[in-house]
Specification:
single chain, alpha+beta, Beta-Lactamase, WH-like_DNA-bd_sf
Amino acid sequence: MIRAIDDCYEAIVEPEKWPDALQSLAGAAGADCAMFYPKDVNQDALRVPSSRSYAELLEHYVQGGWYQNHYRAERGWPLMRSRRFVLEQHLSTEEERRTLRHYNELYLRWGYPGFIAIPFAIDGHSWCLPMLRGQDRGFFTEEEGARLAVFAPHFRRMMLLTARFSWQRAGGGLESLEKIDKAALVLDWQGRVRDLNAKARALLARAADALFLNGGGHLHAVQPDSENRLQALFALLQSRDRRDRRLKEAHPVRMERPGHRPLLVEAVSLEGMVPFLSAARSLLLITDLGERPVPVARQLRVLLQLTPAEAELCVELASGRTLAEAAERLRITAGTARQRLKDIFHKTGTHRQSELVALLLRLPSVGGAPDRPGWAASVARGGTKDGTWMEE
C-alpha cells in the first residue's frame, strides 16, 4: 500500500500518471477501480483523477446521466459526515439491492457490486475516495474499511497539493502573459475572477465604462449588448458537455466603450491543462483596441540595429509623444533629439517621423497587438454584426 501511496504523490506533479497510480492504489486496497470524487461533481466526473479501469465505466456513467437520483450519493454523503468509511452494506439492504436500478443496471452489469468510500474534506468541500470491487471478491468488510480509512489524511493531502500545484501553473501563465503585455484574468469553475495580472487591473480601472467586477467577483459589461455577448461566452466556458467543442471555434467578443474604441474579450479554456480540483478553469484575455502598442527598446536594438539611446527615442515616439516631449522625458536637448532622429531615419530607410512610427508599430513581437493572421484587417472592417471579431 505504501508503494501505491508514493505513486499517487508522484502523480501530483505529473498528472498524466494518475490513471496508473490509482490503478496501483486500487490493487493494493483489494479493489478493481479507484478515483477521487468531490461532492456534486456529476457531469464533471470525467475530469477528476481516476484509475485506468474506471475510464469506460465513468464515460457510461456520465453519458447515461447515472449521477441523477443516485442512492449512493443521496445516502452516502450524509453518512460520511460522521463515519470514517462507508460500505455498500451501509447504503442498502439485501432486499433493496434486488430492485435498486443503479445497483442492478449499472454496477452489477459492469461487474462491480462491492463499494467503499473514504471521506475527507478540503476547504470545507466534501470529497471521498470511492473504490469498486468485482463479483469474485464481493463486498468490502468492516475490517477492510477500518484499515483503508487510516489513509484518509494521505488522500486529502494528495488533492490539496494537486490544487496548489494547479494554481501555480495558472499563476505562471499570468506571469508569462504579463511579460508579453497581455491583460489576463483567471476564472474558476463558477465563472468568478480568482486572479488577474497588473495589466488587467490597469485596464479595468481605466475602462470602467465598459467592464467591471461586481462584489461577487464576476465580470460584467456596462452596455446591454456587450453584456449579452459576454455572458454567452461565460456560458460556453461553463458548459459541462464534454462533446461541446464550440469553445475551440469561439472568437473574441466585442465590448462597446462609449467615446473609445471597443475592447475585445477572448476566452481560453484551461480544461485538460490543470486538474479538476484547480480553482483555475479558464483564462480571459482582454485587448484594448484604443491602446497604442508600444515597442520594447531591447527588441528595437536587435531588429533595427539601433543604439540604446536611439531605441529609447523610438519607444517614446511610438508612444505618441512629440519629439520635444520625448527629449524632455529622456533629458536630452532638442538638438540631440533631432540628430538622433536623423540617424534613425538613415538606419531605417524612413524620412518622416510619421513614417518611422508606422514602421515601429508594424514590427513583429514588439507591441501589445494580437499576432493572429487577419486580426488587423478584421478590426479595420469593424468586426461582424453580432459583435464577434472574425479571423480571415
